[in-house]
């Protein structure tokens, strides 16, 4: 018997989950992906990046923290705690795959579900590279950017799980506005990339070694220049969202679309305010964690706005019969 056939037989032994149960599991996937990004930021700003100096073991010969003269206990606990969150990410990813497979969901949903454990494996490999290279700034940056990508995919999984498999694809917003949404998503990607560069040039290296020869190298670019670039892109992103809002209002887009965009605009404005406070106060550690949490929320919000532009509606619904949801109140 092939592995695929064995997996299918094992899944069929499970009780079939309801649509609500699938949505709850998908929501937990989103939360776990955002959580590990935040705990990763906490590791960095507390200089706990090498609290477990080896990977996959914490110390040579031990998978858990051990007493060590050169590594404070608090740093070990924070880094080890972040690694433990990985098990939550893996558990929710596996639960999502099992749930949608047992429910015999459509291929689109299955693809998004399987991307969760696959991308988690990628993150584990990147985490190992980050530790083994001594927290080089660009490895940490890639690690965070992949986390944000996983938040995006997890959000799409959550939304797609809630759509009927036998529904009809419906264009909710005009193609031009959907294109503007895509442009805003690309701009958000640029905001995230420059944000990691600001961190790479900033004061939080992830480790504070007393030996100057072991100091974590930083990005050799003037941080003020990077901050201005990062902030300018955030303003451009916010302007695109506001323009999208005017467009949605002009075509009388469904209320749920405008509501999602409104929440997203509020999050971006709050993120901008946090960024300004950070810069003016020497980048306090607590605000870095808040900044990363908001980045994850904004990524999820942008994904939600993108996904709602084209959705699936029940065959008997008015939107499905019309072939478009643009005029739906």
Q: Specify Rg, calculated over alpha carbons.
A: 22 Å
Basic shape: flat
Topology as a string of helices (H) and strands (E):
HHHHHEHHHHEH
Tally of strands: 2
Largest β-sheet summary? 2 strands, antiparallel
Q: Provide the β-strand percentage band.
A: under 5%
What's the pLDDT, averaged over the residues? 88
Ends apart, CA distance between termini:
53 Å
Task: Output the number of helix runs.
Answer: 10
Summarize the structure.
By secondary structure, the protein is mainly α.
General description of the model:
- With 329 residues, this protein is an all-alpha fold.
- The protein has helices at 3-12, 19-45, 73-102, 107-132, 137-161, 175-201, 223-250, 255-280, 285-308, 318-322; strands at 168-171, 310-313.
- A two-stranded antiparallel sheet has the order 1-2.
- The radius of gyration is 22 Å and the shape is flat.
- The model has no long low-confidence stretch (mean pLDDT 88).
């Amino acid at each position: 018997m092939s592995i695929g056939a064995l997996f299918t037989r094992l899944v069929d032994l499970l009780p079939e989950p309801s649509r609500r149960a699938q949505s709850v599991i998908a929501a937990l996937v989103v939360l776990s992906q955002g959580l590990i990004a935040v705990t990763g930021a906490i590791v960095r700003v507390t200089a706990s990046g090498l609290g477990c100096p080896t990977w996959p073991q914490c110390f040579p010969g031990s998978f858990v923290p051990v007493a060590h003269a050169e590594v404070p206990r608090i740093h070990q606990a924070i880094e080890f705690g972040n690694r433990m969150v990985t098990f939550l990410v893996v558990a929710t990813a596996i639960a999502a795959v099992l749930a949608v497979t047992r429910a015999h969901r459509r291929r689109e949903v299955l693809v998004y579900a399987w991307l969760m454990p696959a991308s988690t494996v990628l993150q584990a490999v990147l985490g190992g590279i980050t530790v083994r290279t001594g927290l080089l700034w660009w490895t940490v940056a890639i690690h965070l950017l992949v986390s944000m990508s996983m938040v995006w995919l997890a959000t799409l999984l959550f939304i797609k799980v809630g759509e009927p498999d036998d529904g009809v694809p419906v264009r909710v917003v005009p193609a031009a506005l959907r294109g503007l949404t895509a442009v805003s998503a690309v701009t958000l990607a640029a905001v995230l990339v420059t944000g990691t560069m600001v961190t790479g040039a900033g004061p939080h290296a992830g480790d504070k070694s007393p030996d100057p020869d072991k100091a974590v190298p930083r990005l050799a670019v003037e941080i003020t220049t990077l901050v201005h670039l990062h902030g300018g892109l955030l303003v451009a992103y916010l302007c695109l969202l506001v323009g999208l809002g005017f467009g949605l209002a002009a075509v009388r887009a469904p209320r749920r679309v405008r509501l999602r965009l409104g929440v997203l605009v509020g999050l971006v404005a709050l993120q901008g305010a946090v960024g300004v406070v950070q810069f003016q106060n020497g980048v306090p550690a607590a605000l870095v964690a808040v900044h990363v949490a908001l980045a994850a929320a904004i990524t999820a919000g942008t994904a939600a706005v993108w996904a709602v532009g084209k959705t699936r509606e029940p065959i008997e619904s008015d939107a499905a019969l019309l072939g478009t949801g643009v005029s739906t109140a």
